[in-house]
TrEMBL record:
Enzyme Commission (EC) number: 2.7.10.2
Family of the protein in this entry: Belongs to the protein kinase superfamily. Ser/Thr protein kinase family. GCN2 subfamily.
Enzyme class: transferase
Gene Ontology molecular function, alphabetical: ATP binding; metal ion binding; non-membrane spanning protein tyrosine kinase activity; protein serine/threonine kinase activity
One GO cellular component term noted in the UniProt record for this chain: nucleus
PROSITE patterns: PROTEIN_KINASE_ATP (PS00107), PROTEIN_KINASE_DOM (PS50011), PROTEIN_KINASE_ST (PS00108)
Pfam family, one: Pkinase
Source superkingdom: Eukaryota
Transmembrane segments: none
Region (Disordered): 459-479
Protein name per Swiss-Prot or TrEMBL: Wee1-like protein kinase
Annotated ranges, domain Protein kinase: 223-467
Residues engaged in binding ATP: 253
Length: 479
C-alpha cells in the first residue's frame, strides 16, 4: 500500500489501541509480504492452544486474554489510512457493505474456553458477519474447525458487543488481493504471480468492483478531468491532469459495466498487453489501471489526436504517409518480436504526439501462437484469411491492416464495410493513386497481398529501401 505504513495493532481495553509503524508497506503484493503473511498463517495454526500468538508478525492482531471481550470496538479508521491515497493497493472484493460500521452483534457465538486461537479471536472481534468470516477463515487456514464454530455459534450474545464491518474487511485484507497472470508475460513463475494462489477461493474475485470502502473514487481523487478527447465502441477517453504530479494524461474508461469476473478479465487483456510490451516510442505509453464502479480505467500517455479520418487532417503527401508506415512498422516489429499481434490497426488507433506516431488501443491484442482467444478488430481492415478463420499468420494481419489504413488516409474517406471496394482490397487490388510514386504504390500493394506469406513482415518493411534516408532529400525522419 503506497503512501501508508503497515501498523502493528494491539487491541486492548476499549479506547486503547496502539500502533507500531513497520518498515515495510503492508498491502503491496510483494514476496516479503507474502512471507510475512505466510508466517502469520503458520503462527496461527501453531498457536491453537494459546490466545495470543507467540510471535508477533507484522500483520498480527494480538488480543489480551484477560480483557473482557464485551468492550471491543474496532474500526478500520483506527489502523488504516484511507484507501484513496493508496492507489496500488487494490481493494479486496467481498460482499460486505462497508458503510455499515459498528453494527451490534446480537448473535455472536458464546466463547467456549476449550477452543482457543482462531475461534477466540473471531469471537473476540464479535463479528456480525460471523459466517462470512468463518468461511474466510476456512479458506485461509484450511481447517475443519469452522464446522464446530457454526454448531456452537447459535446462542444469543448476552453482552453488548460491537463489531466494525471494516474490521471484517481488514480480515479480508490480510489476504492480499489476487494477482492476475499476464498471458503476454511468459517469464513469470506461478509463485511469483500469486504466492497465495492455492489458498484463495472466497476472496479471489479478480478485483474489487466497488469504489473504496470510504466511498472515494481513485479517478476523481487522483485526477482532474479536463475534457473528453475520444470515444470508441467500448470506451470514452478523457484528457486529465494528475493532481500529484501536475502532468496531463489520457484516461480511458470502459463505458460498459463489467459485472462478471470474466468480463473484467477480458477487459484487462488490453492492459496486460500494454504492460507486457513495455516502452516503445511508437506505442502509446501505459501508466496504470484500476477498476472502479465496475469500469476499467487505463491511464496512458496523452497524445494530440488520432489519425481518424473523422478529424480534419492534412495528411496527404507521400512523405508523411511513408513516415506513418515506417513508424508503425517499427511498432509492429517490436510487438511481433514479443509474440503479440495487435489485430486492430486502423487510423482510429494510430495517435500522433509531437510528430511521433503511436499505436494504441490494444483491446484486440492476442498472442501470435494463437494460444489466446482471438477477437478480430474492425472488419474493414481485416484481410480475407481472417474472415475465413485462418489465424496462421497473425503478424501479417497487422501488415494488411496497416496497408488498408494508409489507403484510407489517401482516399480521405472511411473504407466501406462491404461492397466492391472492400472486396478489391482483400484481393490485393488498388486503384491507381495519382500523385504517388510507383515504388510507394507497389509497397502498398505488397502490404495488402491476399497471400499473407507474400506480405512483408514488419521487420522487412522497416528495412525497405523506400525509407532509406539517403534516398530522401531534406528529410531525415527515418532513423
Ligand atoms: N492516449 C491517447 N491520447 C489521445 N487520444 C486518445 C488516446 N487514447 C485514445 N484516444 C482517443 O480515443 C479514441 C478511442 O480510444 P480507443 O480506440 O482506445 O477506444 P476503444 O473503445 O477501444 O475503440 P474501438 O472502438 O476502436 O475499439 C481514439 O480513437 C482516440 O481518438
Ligand atoms: Mg480504438
Amino acid at each position: 500500500m503506497k503512501g501508508s505504513v503497515a501498523r502493528h495493532l494491539t487491541v486492548q481495553k476499549l479506547g486503547h489501541v496502539s500502533f507500531k509503524p513497520l518498515q515495510q508497506p503492508s498491502f503491496s503484493i510483494s514476496l516479503s509480504d507474502s512471507f510475512r503473511f505466510q508466517s502469520l498463517l503458520e503462527s496461527e495454526a501453531q498457536s491453537a492452544d494459546s490466545i495470543i500468538p507467540s510471535s508477533s508478525p507484522p500483520l498480527d492482531i494480538d488480543i489480551d486474554s484477560n480483557v473482557d471481550d464485551k468492550d471491543f470496538i474496532l474500526s478500520q479508521d483506527f489502523f488504516c489510512t484511507p484507501d484513496y491515497i493508496t492507489p496500488d493497493g487494490q481493494y479486496i472484493s467481498n460482499s460486505l457493505d462497508c458503510n455499515k460500521e459498528n453494527i451490534a452483534c446480537p448473535k455472536s457465538p458464546e466463547k467456549i474456553k476449550t477452543v482457543k486461537s482462531k475461534r477466540q479471536r473471531q469471537d473476540g472481534f464479535n463479528l456480525s458477519c460471523h459466517e462470512q468470516v468463518v468461511e474466510l477463515a476456512k479458506d485461509t487456514f484450511g481447517t475443519d474447525e469452522i464446522n464446530t464454530e457454526k454448531a456452537i455459534g447459535t446462542e444469543p450474545q448476552k453482552n453488548h458487543s460491537y463489531v466494525s464491518q471494516s474490521a471484517v474487511a481488514l480480515r479480508c485484507r490480510v489476504m492480499p488481493p489476487p494477482c492476475i497472470k499476464n498471458p503476454y508475460q511468459k517469464d513469470a513463475s506461478e509463485t511469483d504471480i500469486d504466492p497465495f494462489g492455492n489458498q484463495r477461493s472466497k476472496c479471489a474475485g479478480i478485483l474489487p468492483t466497488i469504489i473504496g470502502g470510504d466511498g472515494l473514487s481513485r479517478y476523481w481523487t487522483d485526477f482532474h478531468e479536463i475534457e473528453q478527447i475520444g470515444n470508441g465502441n467500448f470506451s470514452c477517453v478523457f484528457k486529465v491532469l494528475k493532481r500529484i504530479d501536475g502532468c496531463f494524461y489520457a484516461v480511458k474508461k470502459s463505458t460498459r459495466l463489467l459485472h462478471q469476473d470474466t468480463e473484467r478479465r477480458k477487459a484487462l487483456m488490453e492492459v496486460q498487453a500494454l504492460a507486457a510490451l513495455g516502452f516503445h516510442e511508437n506505442i502509446v505509453g501505459y501508466y496504470s489501471s484500476w477498476f472502479e464502479n465496475e469500469q476499467l480505467f487505463i491511464q496512458m500517455e496523452l497524445c494530440d489526436h488520432s489519425l481518424s479520418i473523422r478529424k480534419p487532417s492534412k495528411l496527404s503527401t507521400e512523405g508523411e504517409l511513408l513516415e506513418i508506415i515506417y513508424q508503425m512498422a517499427k511498432a509492429l516489429q517490436f510487438i511481433h518480436e514479443k509474440g503479440i499481434a495487435h489485430l486492430d490497426v486502423k487510423p482510429d488507433n494510430i495517435y500522433i504526439k509531437n510528430g511521433v506516431y503511436k499505436l494504441g488501443d490494444f483491446g484486440c491484442a492476442t498472442l501470435l501462437d494463437s494460444t489466446l482467444p482471438i477477437e478480430e478488430g474492425d472488419a474493414r481492415y481485416m484481410p480475407q484469411e481472417v474472415l475465413n478463420d485462418n489465424y496462421d499468420h497473425l503478424d501479417k494481419v497487422d501488415i494488411f491492416s496497416l496497408g488498408a489504413a494508409i489507403y484510407e488516409l489517401i482516399r480521405g474517406s472511411a473504407l466501406p464495410e462491404s461492397g466492391h471496394l472492400s472486396l478489391n482490397l482483400r484481393e490485393g487490388k488498388l486503384p491507381l493513386l495519382p500523385g504517388h510514386s510507383v515504388q510507394f504504390q507497389n509497397l502498398l500493394k505488397a502490404m495488402i497481398d491476399p497471400d499473407p506469406v507474400r506480405r512483408p513482415s514488419a521487420k522487412e518493411l522497416v528495412k525497405n529501401p523506400i525509407f532509406d534516408r539517403d534516398q530522401r532529400t531534406g528529410k531525415n525522419h527515418y532513423s
